[in-house]
């Protein structure tokens, strides 16, 4: 296998990873960080969109609706509605931000489109496992584990591509893994199991963590494929808004095709019947999709104007706030050991971001020194 020029540095949310991969010139922009007002708008937009998105996600997938106390169990339908909205907002953003000389088509060529199909497929496969895990674990555990995407990405690159990482990366993985383990093993209200009864609660938690592990592996595979695609794609071929629109369009086609053509699946009919019986969930789903689409636009715009370091800081703090909002809004209670686990996870993620910041600063200094010597 040919060795690629770019090595994977950080695990990110799929949209963040895509955005950073295609925004090649963001870090060198002359107006980088110059507009404080624009930065406030971008950060505020990300916080408002994704904090609301997270609250709606938890409400839709974990809380009962109506007098019959039913829970919405149609993750592919939820995914499809969100990807459709993201396709529309992405196309609007693409049309608005395009200038003469930039790509005018959503799908540049057949080769790139086929590779994007693999990315969309792994993203579409990951989501149902994540939502299924919420039937067995609480949303706080879900958020915490989803913040640890560095683990599956490193695992895949070490086992498949035989890559090596600096020592601090392994330290971060240890902190994050220890944090998630402590959080899972020391709940605030452990369930008491009667003598002679099977430990179903424990089995459910283990099964939920297994489903979440599969979800994270698919996420890691998504980022791995993205890294391979963008390391081979010449600069300027694909823009950020173009990539956002293309991926969400392909994901929509895949999930709609599955829902309509799979004779063994009744998920679409079940979802329509649920929404008809409980109209409130329909409004929540629309709000969830709108927030997700707008949030992606703010992510791409923030990256293009202010660079990846600002974006990493915003996304990490946003996940911390999502966890706090979930505790407050849905009445979760955490034990002192669980707070320790949270601290370890976000401490590791924060250390990862700081090491990246120092590395980027060193690169810029080296580049500046090289330019000075040439002059």
From TrEMBL:
Which compartment or compartments is the protein found in? Endoplasmic reticulum membrane
Note whether Transport occurs among the keywords: yes
Q: Which Pfam families match?
A: UAA (PF08449)
SUPFAM superfamilies on file: Multidrug resistance efflux transporter EmrE
Keywords linked to the UniProt accession:
Endoplasmic reticulum, Membrane, Sugar transport, Transmembrane, Transmembrane helix, Transport
Say yes or no: keyword Transferase present: no
State any GO CC term: endoplasmic reticulum membrane
List membrane-spanning regions. 36-56, 76-94, 139-160, 167-186, 206-225, 246-265, 285-303
Q: Could you tell me the membrane topology recorded for this protein?
A: Multi-pass membrane protein
Under Gene Ontology molecular function, one entry of this record is: UDP-glucose transmembrane transporter activity
Which PANTHER family does this chain map to?
SOLUTE CARRIER FAMILY 35 MEMBER B, SOLUTE CARRIER FAMILY 35 MEMBER B1
State the family it belongs to.
Belongs to the nucleotide-sugar transporter family. SLC35B subfamily.
Q: What is this protein called?
A: UDP-galactose transporter homolog 1
Instruction: Name the species this protein comes from.
Output: Tuber aestivum (summer truffle)
């Amino acid at each position: 296998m040919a060795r690629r020029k770019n090595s994977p540095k950080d695990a990110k949310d799929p949209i963040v990873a895509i955005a950073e991969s295609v925004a090649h010139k963001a870090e060198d922009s002359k107006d980088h960080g110059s507009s404080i007002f624009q930065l406030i708008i971008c950060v505020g937009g990300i916080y408002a969109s994704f904090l609301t998105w997270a609250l709606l996600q938890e409400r839709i997938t974990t809380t009962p609706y109506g007098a019959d106390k039913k829970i919405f169990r149609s993750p592919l339908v939820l995914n499809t509605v969100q990807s459709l909205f993201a396709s529309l907002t992405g196309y609007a953003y693409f049309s608005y931000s395009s200038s003469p000389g930039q790509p005018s088509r959503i799908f540049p060529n057949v080769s790139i489109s086929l590779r994007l199909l693999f990315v969309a497929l792994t993203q579409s496969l990951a989501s149902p496992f994540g939502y299924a895990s919420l039937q067995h674990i609480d949303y706080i555990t879900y958020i915490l584990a989803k913040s640890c995407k560095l683990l599956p990405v490193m695992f895949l690159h070490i086992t498949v591509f035989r890559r090596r990482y600096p020592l601090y990366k392994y330290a971060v993985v240890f902190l994050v893994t220890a944090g998630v383990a402590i959080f899972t093993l020391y709940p605030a209200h452990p369930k008491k199991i009667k003598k002679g009864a099977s430990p179903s609660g424990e089995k459910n938690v283990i099964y939920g963590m297994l489903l979440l592990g599969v979800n994270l592996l698919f996420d890691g595979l998504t980022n791995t494929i993205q890294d391979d695609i963008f390391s081979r794609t010449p600069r300027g071929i694909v823009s950020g808004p173009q990539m956002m629109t293309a991926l969400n369009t392909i994901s929509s086609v895949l999930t709609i095709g599955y829902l309509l053509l799979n004779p063994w699946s009744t998920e679409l009919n079940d979802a329509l019947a649920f929404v008809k019986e409980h109209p409130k969930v329909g409004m929540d789903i629309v709000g969830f999709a709108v927030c997700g689409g707008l949030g992606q636009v703010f992510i791409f715009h923030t990256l293009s104007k202010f660079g990846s370091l600002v974006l990493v800081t915003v996304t990490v703090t946003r996940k911390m706030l999502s966890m706090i909002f979930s505790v407050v809004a849905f009445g979760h209670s955490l034990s002192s050991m669980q707070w320790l686990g949270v601290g370890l996870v976000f401490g590791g993620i924060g250390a990862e971001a700081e090491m990246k910041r120092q590395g980027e600063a060193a690169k810029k200094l080296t580049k500046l020194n090289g330019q000075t010597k040439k002059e």
